[in-house]
Amino acid sequence: MTAPPVTTAVVSGGRWAGRARGLALRLWAVPVVVALWETAARSVESVYFPPPSAILARLRELWFSGPPARLFLSDAALADFLPSLGHLFGGWALACLGGISLGVAIGRSRTLAGYVDPLIEFGRAIPPPTLIPLFIVLFKADTRMQLATIVYGVIWPVLVNSVDGARYVDRLHIETARVFGLSRGELLFRVILPAAAPKIFAGLRLSLSLALILMVVAELVGSATSGIGYELIYTQQNFDLPGMWGTIALLGVLGFLLNSSFLVVERRTLAWHRRAGRRS
Questions:
Q1: Mean pLDDT for the chain?
Q2: Strand ranges (E), the chain
Q3: Is the pTM of this model over 0.70?
Q4: Could you tell me how far CA 107 lies from the centroid of its own chain?
Q5: Contact call for residues 228 and 251 (beta carbons, < 8 A)
Q6: What b-and-e string marks burial along 240-268, b requiring 16 or more CB atoms within 10 Å of the CB?
Q7: Are the C-beta atoms of 163 and 113 separated by less than 8 Å?
Q8: Which of 40, 164, 168, 172 is 20 to 30 A from residue 25's alpha carbon, by CA?
Q9: Is the pLDDT score of 4 beyond 90?
Q10: H-helix or E-strand containing 204?
């Protein structure tokens, strides 16, 4: 007697159940830490360290008290999230485009690398917040200043990883491509970029977390009426400590979601690289 076939729904359900168990195993420490924090905050009873329950209530009031049709986003959330995310992704995209383009060019040219390597080491050693006064003079305290701050701080990990990835492409792959008569463009897109992709993605992942940090730093200085960074300093100035802690928690959750989403894209994009590694 043959066993009945396993349906697609059963396989899919088992896969989702496995993912849910894996997520629970990774996040088990979160409720434990929150419970300890709640207990400690209630025992200390300090106005500067409100319990997570008070922070969560204020967080919901500030950001997630809207109608279900808007995914419960409040008016303040719509006013603050959109410009902040626009600055974050706009600056990150510009930095990634420039960093990858320059990095691949530098990595494939020893002559160019000899000229610009000292400049790269000099530039990446300068903390981006120290240049905010210069960016304010050049661009005024507006969106351009915020984008300049994010781009300057984010471009370095992308640039350095792109240089390393393009520089150490297997020479045998390059020679084989030339034997088959690939043009420069085909060599770039079929050999160099795929070989450098793991390094490039490592720089992109690191740069995304830096973009979130620099978004807040830039908005603390250059945002007058909107943005998550503006809301953070507004709650501080008005001694709204649950709101301040709630905004900080929101940034942590946003960072977690951005990193998790990027990992999904990275795994799917570089699936061929993992398969090749297992075969070798």
A1: 87
A2: none
A3: yes
A4: 24
A5: yes
A6: bbbbbbbbeebbeebeeebeeeeeeebee
A7: yes
A8: 40
A9: no
A10: helix 193-222
Helix (H) / strand (E) element for 30: namely helix 29-44
**Residues across the chain:** 280
CA distance 179 to 182: 8
Give how far the C-alpha of residue 264 lies from the chain's centroid of Cα atoms, to the nearest Å. 13
The torsion angles phi and psi of 118, rounded to 5 degrees, stand at: -60, -35
Per-residue pLDDT tens digits for 193-227: 999 999 999 999 999 999 999 999 998 886 667 78
> What's the rounded mean pLDDT across residues 259-271?
91
Helix axes 143-167, 75-107, angle to 10 degrees: 40
Q: Which pLDDT score, from 0 to 100, does residue 18 have?
A: 66
Nearest alpha-carbon partner for 93 in 121, 216, 101 = 101
* Residue 84 near residue 215 (C-beta atoms within 8 A): yes
